[in-house]
Each structure stands twice: as structure tokens, then as C-alpha cells.
Amino acid sequence: MTIFGVKPVIEALRAGRVTALAVSVRRRRGLTELLELADRRGVRLRRVDPAELDRLAGVAAHQGVVATVRALDTYAVADLVAVRTPPLILVLDGIEDPRNLGAIARTLDAAGGSGLVVPERRAAPVTGAAVKASAGALVHVPLAPVVNLPRALGELKAAGVWTIGLEAEADQSLYDLDLRLPSAIVIGGEGRGLHRLVRERCDWRAALPMRGRVSSLNASVAAAVALFEAVRQRSAAAPAG
Asked: Would you tell me how many other CB atoms lie within 10 Å of the CB of residue 240?
């Protein structure tokens, strides 16, 4: 896979995933950390002209840095449950924009979440654009691709994880739920929302209270609000000291 951008490539170097690195002949500043990491990892560096970087990245917004990385590791749903106690998992139902996937992964990493469950089909692919939108977080976040999302929710429930579908039309507020419990928050695609079978598998349906004229949030923003409500509740419950 090809990724681009200074921060994503630094994170991929930290994770030991970079196999080749190309840097613009015109880019000299702001690369100290990246170049030191590449040297420590034994990654060969090529200096190339900007047109060659455009070709390698497929976009112009590469910040003068393009890397080839090993494919990201994937996990089973049970692996995500075991990452930390209590689990805090995001399940994505119909998120098809790679930039949304990246933004969600970045927030999940910041919140200390356990990982992402995503459908194998009809879902945003993990691309260079997704990794860039995640600021490199996608190389660290455990990812569990599944063939059948309702079945994956069943696995989570069998493992003692409560499944919560975010929906604007839900009668219950997310803020009324106890997110200190093992939780998997299900985010639907923009416009379509949750698929019927996914909705029916959720233990709860919950809404984020809206106070303005716009009735819903972007999927990545909704995920951020939900995740950090869980962080808030868990932090408040943690013993002092």
C-alpha cells in the first residue's frame, strides 16, 4: 500500500511498516524526525522530483513524502474484545468515504478505543487518503473486517459487550447510557443510517441530543462525541490517584 504525508509516514515508520520511502528533492525542512526514524529502521530513502511523487501518491497533497508500507494487520472480533478492559469498540455500518474512515480511526486512537469492526464489502477501503485523514492512526488501530455485520454484533454480545446503535430518531439519549460497561458503538452511513438487520441486533438505540436547526452530525463527528462521552464517564468513575 502507498501512503503519503509527513505525519502518516512517521507513524508507519514507528510501527515498522515502511518498506520504501521517497522524498521530494525540494523538501528539506520539517523532516528531521522522519529521516532519523527511517535511518534507525534501515529504510532506504530516495530523493525524487515532485512529478514522480505525484505519480507515486496519485494525488498532489503528499507534503513531499510518499512511502510504501506493508498491508495492515487484521484481527478477529474476539481479539478486539481482549485489547483492553472494559472494551470500547466502534462498529462502522456503511461508512464508504475513506476520509471519514480515517477521521474516525484518528478519534478512536485518541480516545484509547479497542478497535474498529468494519464490513469487508461496501465499506471505505484503507487507502493512502484514509491513512492521511487519520494522521497515521490507522497503522496503530486494530481493524477487524467481517463478512456479516449482524453476526459480528452477535459475537460481541456473546462476549459480554453491549451494542449501541447511534440514530438521530432514537428516543433514548446516549448520555443516559452507562458507557463504563463493555461497549460497542455502531455508526451508520451518512444519509442511510443503520441497516435494518444491524439496528435489530443492537441492544440499545441512542441519539445525540441536538439543540440547533440541523438534525444530525457527520458520521466522524458523531463517533467523536460518542467516544469521548464514554471516556468522560470512565474517567469520572476511575479511582483518584
From this structure: 3
Q: Give tens-digit pLDDT for 165-205.
A: 999 889 999 999 999 999 999 999 877 889 999 999 999 99
Let me know: does 206 contact 170? Beta carbons within 8 Å. Answer: yes
Asked if pLDDT for residue 43 goes beyond 60, the answer is yes
Q: Say whether the peptide bond before residue 150 is cis (omega within 30 degrees of 0).
A: no
Q: Could you give the CA distance from residue 236 to residue 49 in angstroms, rounded to a whole number?
A: 52
Are 138 and 198 in a shared domain? yes
Is the same domain home to 189 and 86? yes
Hunting for cell 478512536 — which residue is that? 108
Count of positions (residues) in the chain: 241
Mean residue pLDDT of the chain comes to 92
Both 131 and 222 in a single domain? yes
What is the value of pTM for the model shown?
0.91
Q: Is residue 60 domain-shared with residue 85, that is, in the same domain?
A: no
Residue 52 sits in the same domain as residue 117: no
Is the same domain home to 57 and 83? no
Q: Which domain holds residue 19?
A: 2-69
| Residue-level pLDDT at 240 | 60
* Backbone conformation region of residue 191, classed left if phi is above 0, alpha if psi is from -120 to 50, else beta: left
